[in-house]
Amino acid sequence: MAEHQNDEAEYSDNSYEIVNSEECYIFLTDSEEDFSAESRLQTGGIESSVLENEDAFDGTESSDLENEVAFNGMESSDLENEDFFGGIFSSDLNNEYDSRFIFPAHIKRKEDMEIKDVVKDHVLPFLPAKSLLRFRSVSKEWDRWIASPFLAHKQTYCFRDVSGFLSQYGNGIPTFLTLNESAFGIPWPLLGFLPESTVVRSSCNGLLLCQGCDGEGIYYICNPVNKEWRELPQPNYYHGSEPAIVLAFEPSVLNIPAHYEVICAVPLIDQPLAYFEIYSSKEKSWRCSAADSIELEFSELKEGGFYMKGTAYWETSCGKLLAFDLKNEVCGILPLPFGSAGSGVLTQMHGELCYICANNQTGNAYKVDIFGGIDMHLKQSIVLDFELVGAANRECRALPCVNSNVMMIVIGKTLYSYHVRDQKVIVVNRELNNFSARYLPYVNSLVMVAPS
Question: Is the full-model pTM beyond 0.90?
């Protein structure tokens, strides 16, 4: 509307505006003198004396009616010029006198779109961050679009594939094990942009939760791709040297600021109980959950945790699973497969929580067991011959899955991917630093870190 008003101000003569009502058309002109009695056509019986009365136009001021004439049943053929209504009846909808019909520069009609426009709008959001950063050199238009927060939000929502694993042993320097060197990558050094050396505690949909090693245990939220980071305020309670903490970030169409939450299961000192402290980027503060503290049966919570579909999970030392529903703030204890506690990893397969264990069987094969469901029953067993993986009698462990078809297995110092559907084993990396290192799945995302 502001643009239309500006257009009218530019023209001193023959400026018009159309107003549509149920019974008549009202048009504006600069002067009543431009219209003779013959050119006014039929006025539907409205006398000029009535036009002076503001009640005839639902309270319109008489000063506003000096340039108004009401027409009833006007036909476009009665007009001498088809542009009489500012181009309304003109076949050229891009008439310079009516900017309402001019498409914005950043919007193109389907018939005007080229292949590059289709790629820009419908392909780029589904690519990993490394590829997108490389494509910024294609043109100035692509550079502006890829650097914009709009594409960052759209790509965060559309691209969810695990791109690799963050590996860290103790408080050492973390490294990134990519699943595809040409497609997935992180700038090196990995977290050198943070103000201190850190331990990566949790990873979720492109964001990392790190904790400083300089004594105060400060938490940081960051994205290593764009090197954005935020320092979190100190929590109200002591989380311990190896906190059972989980980062929860759910990309969605409505989560434009990329808000996240951090959940820590805090054990009570000398008590077999735990309560939950939550940080929200919306509220920018920590709070203690309203959920009752839960008894851990004299067991300890393992470092880190796993987040999936609104629920945080922690494995305990007694072979149980502690679960916390973030939305409803309720907690509970779930079973783990008997005899497998501590030997597996929590992950997601086919949309449900699973626990995967990899063992070195006596004989000539490795065995991978997949447990799932609310009772964690055995769903599938996979046997990998030594000849198939090219390694015999070595330690093995499972890592979180890339997707529902690709599992990750570490045998000795080699990382393998196993494609369940094709029963195919692929070597990903033969030079792992440490078999017992911490491995966290990472998504190569452009997500921008919300203020903390």
Answer: no
